[in-house]
Amino acid sequence: MSNIRKAFENGKAFIPFITCGDPDLETTKRIVREAVAAGADLIELGIPFSDPTAEGPVIQAANARALAGGVTTDKIFDLVRDLRHDVNVPMVFMTYANVVYSYGADRFIKTCAGIGIDGIILPDLPFEEKGEFDDVCRQYGVDLISLIAPTSDERIAMIAKEARGFIYLVSSLGVTGVRSEITTDIGSLVKIIRENTDVPVAVGFGISTPEQAAKMASLSDGAIVGSAIIRIMEQYGQDSPGHVGDFIRSMTAAVHTGRDGHRL
Amino acid sequence: MSEEIKAGRFGIHGGQYIPETLMNAVIQLDKAYTHYKDDPRFNEELTQLFNEYAGRPSRLYYAKKMTEDLGGAKIYLKREDLNHTGSHKINNVLGQALLAKKMGKTRLIAETGAGQHGVATATAAALFGMECVVFMGEEDTKRQALNVYRMRLLGAEVIPVTTGTATLKDAVSEAMREWTRRIDDTHYCLGSVMGPHPFPTIVRDFQSVISREIRSQMLEAEGRLPDIVMACVGGGSNAIGTFYGFIPDKDVRLIGCEAAGRGVGTLETAATIAMGKLGIFHGMKSYFCQDEFGQIAPVYSISAGLDYPGIGPEHAYLHDIKRAEYVPVTDDEAVCAFEYLSKTEGIIPAIESAHAVAHAMKIAPDLSRDKIIVITISGRGDKDCAAIARYRGEDISE
Asked: What is the DSSP letter of B366?
């Protein structure tokens, strides 16, 4: 069974997204450990890309800051090696197809498996193109995470049937970023997904408050939050780990409500 | 993998590397295009727009003075600069706008580098009564201020893009982001033979009018096909338009001229075939200028229209199978050619097109007089005059 399933074993999952190397990798390490202490169930680590076409301004800026600070794929692999000494929650990478492709899909994914990365999210790799990456992922036991969007319509069944790890349900049209309101009928999308797979579904894009996170998690299996965390990192820089921890604590408290006995 | 997707491949290049949110949009576009491309009424309407509105066919002009001056091969110029809006971009835009209208779309969005594609899109939007938003790198809005004004005059909204290098690649990224925000009423009128399938095919087909005309005009003028056809290459739309009809004619050499900026081997270049490696970006697998970790390189060229870190997937394939040759041309060579064609033939080419003129100036003298070269002059150079003056140390205002 996929290690990612562990994140969903105790009920609804809270999944924070953190851009690696913003503002530096030492801070990233502290943020991840704070996130785990605050009850995060799965950590989504962003490998920055120069031209992140699925991101809104907040995460774009984080990518630019991290790259300007000299972060590379190899340095992020070292970061994960260090974190795996004490971090036991599942961790996945979020990056763009070219970062994996240029490293060599086999070399990249083999390394992921070796250092304890459980899955990879590539927002510019749709179902039709996943073959050359998915074959390698299966070989090394790393889950290639499938994304489903509000526009997926009749594609949902096809995607859900081959999904592994968890399904990243994109809440809204557009790019990542904080939204005051999510108008998509998430419940209906989740229903169609559930008719086709028992892989857990987590909702992301636009979630920034504990209320939104609780609502999205109640309609699915979990909530993913990126831009709202990155904004804290942008504001506090090297002093952000404690602030990020406080924020995640408020989110996990909302999402985990109703769990039998808090895990931590 | 389905046949439909294979149809979007050029060898290993091409594909559809885009967010799931856009997949149904490109699938619908593919279906609509597959339907209309063989529809006689659609093609009649498009031909009428080409002829009556854009002023096609464009002239194939024998450059007698340039030929005599260089003393070698006979040189013809395919005058896409004479089209309405001043460049080849109108060919693709009229086709896509007509297609978008048939699909019920009411809004066009586009990226632009030099502003030629943005102006063409704004023009078609005005003609068809559609809303228009153009994304342009902030750096380029400065280099091409006149075109920004033209777009606004035509009723388009121009949004300066400040992210990344604030040039063409960032304008493409921002247009893609905008498309994911608003799909229902919006068609992304992509300006080059790049991006996800079906764009490289659609844009190629609409631009291939260039090579169809060259063929018939050349047969009429010389009773034979040219020995070489050449064009500048950024994403590669005027080049593929120039090449496409000649791909089966193995005796016709196809030469694409890339922008080498300050030179291949420097960091300030945009010569993708010379410097790039295989990658996945902006919806396609192709060659890209990038670092060892796959970060897209901040490319540079004096020409805002060629200042792009990738190349269309069909060009990548023509390079792989050695059917076309791709050569780098520096800023300095292009500026010299810009001045040369102006003085010699009284034709001011776009700085983009001047890259092709520059390479012709290199090779024509060594070819015998019975050889024929066709250079596509993709656009007119009025927009570049201020920038070239600045390059020469003369500070003029537009």
From this structure: G
Q: Which residues contact A206 (CB under 8 A, 6 or more apart)?
A: A171, A172, A176, A177, A178, A179, A182, A212
What is the number of H-type helices and E-type strands within chain A?
11, 8
Interatomic CA distance for residues B216 and B224, integer angstroms:
9
Q: Could you read off the pLDDT of A205-251 as tens digits, one per residue? A: 999 999 999 999 999 999 999 999 999 999 999 999 999 999 999 99
Contact A124 B288 (CB under 8 A): no
pLDDT in tens, A130-184: 999 999 999 999 999 999 999 999 999 999 999 999 999 999 999 988 888 888 9
Mean residue pLDDT across chain B:
95
Evaluate if residue A261 carries a pLDDT over 80: no
Distance from CA of A128 to the nearest CA of B (A): 7
Domains defined for chain B, CATH in brackets: 3-50+88-203 (3.40.50.1100), 56-86+209-391 (3.40.50.1100)
Pairing mode, strands B13-17 and B9-10: antiparallel
Q: Among all residues of B, which ones are annotated catalytic? A: 89, 111, 378
Q: Provide the ipTM.
A: 0.96
Catalogue all structural domains in chain A, each as residue range(s) with its CATH number.
12-144+208-255 (3.20.20.70)
What per-residue confidence (pLDDT) applies to A264?
Answer: 43
> For A103, which of B278, B288, B293 is closest by C-beta distance?
B293
Whether B18 and A129 have beta carbons less than 8 Å apart is answered as no
pTM: predicted TM-score of the whole model, two decimal places: 0.96
Task: Identify the residue among B3, B293, B296 best suited for mutation to test binding to A, counting A beta carbons within 10 A and taking the highest.
Answer: B293
Instruction: Report residue B29 as tokens.
Output: 């576009």
Residues A32-57, mean pLDDT to the nearest whole number? 97
